[in-house]
Amino acid sequence: MIKMHINTQQTHGTISRYLYGQFAEHLGRCIYEGIWVGADSPIPNTEGYRSDVLKALQNLNIPVLRWPGGCFADEYHWMDGIGPKSKRARMINNHWGGVEENNHFGTHEFLRLCELLQTEPYISGNVGSGTVREMQQWVEYMTLDGESPMASLRKENGREEPWKLPFFGVGNENWGCGGNMRPEYYADVYRHFSTYVRNYGGNRIYKIACGPNTADYHWTEVLMREAAGLMDGLSLHYYTLPTGDWSGSKGSATEYGVDEWFSTMKNTLYMEELIVKHSKIMDKYDPEGRVGLIIDEWGGWYDVEPGTNPGFLYQQNTLRDALIAGINLNIFHNYSQRVKMANIAQVVNVLQAMVLTEGDRMLLTPTYHVFHMYKVHQDAELLNVSFDSPMYKHGAEMIPQINMSASVDANGVIHLSICNLHHAESASIRCLLEGVEAKQVIGTILAHSSLNAHNTFQQPNEVAPVTFTGAQLEEGELIVELPPASVVVLELK
Ligand code: AHR
Questions:
Q1: pLDDT of 475
Q2: Which pathway does it take part in (predicted)?
């Protein structure tokens, strides 16, 4: 029996809704086919956007959407993607499969998508192969009200009013695909480019600098030392690979056993150590915690679905991905004093996606369901949960079996999201709720008898949330019986 204690009277800051951000790159079938099919497509669409995908994503309450990359961002020239579609320049998408990019989905199409999803845009600018002038003009094009060359061009292209642009990234992975820079060099480049990312009129831009790859603490040190005063956020990228090895096979998305299940859980928990260590460096230069740690790429990354283009990063999504999502979101909540935004990679048809499409069919993945179950935490107040987790042992290794977070929303409703990482053992929890007399507990669970379970176009509801009956209130205590390999969200009121 796990003894747990939650003090509902003391809160620890707000869980930013931006932790539930998404990422859409010009990569494989994410934008084209997955989101944008064009108004003439036989696939039912709204102004060219797939209606089924729009509806599914609207139901997720996505707070922020990152675009156009990724590695694509540092090759993207925004002026190629405005004006009449028939006249837009074509290019080769060098990073992702070498396919033709016709630029039919550009600035106007992205910002309209954000309006349809009621989400806020986060645009990544081109540092690697772009110019300061190009970046400056893009921001002017989108946000300047009144008269200017770029505002006039926007109006000629059919958009009178400027858009609001709350988030802008100055490059992406500039330590790698975005220019192979050293942090000492990029820190100066960031200072230079970001100077021209201007606030026009009432628009206020939260500027995000390219941060470290995984455990590159030197990068964080240099960026914070040299440029913290000019940034609002510093990004961090970390992907969960079952093998932990970028050089060989990353592991199959669906064909795995207990060894790979355990290593995936272990590797995804590593996110916590990364946040703690990067935050410690940030604390040194920014003790008030003004600069946000922005985890704008995360999620599971496996070998591509057999038979698909290796440059398209299309992979299936199983119960294991549900655990990855649940665990990472809990970690982000628990460190939300420093972690201000996160964007899972990616929203449709790429890596750990929310939805997968095939022709005119669409399915919701287990990851989608976790995001849907967890959205009750958006902008709620974090509660501290103290407990000693039993250990999940596998061979000579062990990790905590239980991972969780809790919050209280504006109506006083408490939510607990709990993951049982163990592939075979259930867990019993007895939780003392200090400071609240809850009268009712209801819950939802995502679980399955098979560790490899996933949704297919033939069986799209194989993994789906159902009502959870394993929680009860007994004399002011919450008693929970968690099945193995499960994600549960409880509501107490
Ligand atoms: O999300 C896929 C790719 O992963 C992105 O383009 C890049 O930033 C990262 O390496």
A1: 86
A2: Glycan metabolism
Q: Which of the residues 25, 75, 140, 173 is marked catalytic?
A: 173
Q: Of residues 437 and 263, which shows the higher confidence score?
A: 263
Measured from CB, residues less than 6 Å from any atom of ligand 1 are 25, 69-71, 172-173, 297, 345-346, 351
Nearest-atom index, ligand 1, CA of 173: 8
CA angle 359, 365, 367 (to 5 degrees): 145
Residue range 98-155, pLDDT digits in tens? 999 999 999 999 999 999 999 999 999 999 999 999 999 999 999 999 999 999 999 9
Q: Report phi then psi at 280, rounded to 5.
A: -60, -40
Does the annotation count 101 as an active-site position? no
Residue with the smallest CA separation from ligand 1 atom 9 is 70
Say if residue 9's pLDDT is above 90. no
Q: What angle do CA 300, 306, 308 make, to 5 degrees?
A: 90
Q: How far does the centroid of ligand 1 lie from the alpha carbon of residue 70, in Å?
A: 5
Active site residue 297: yes
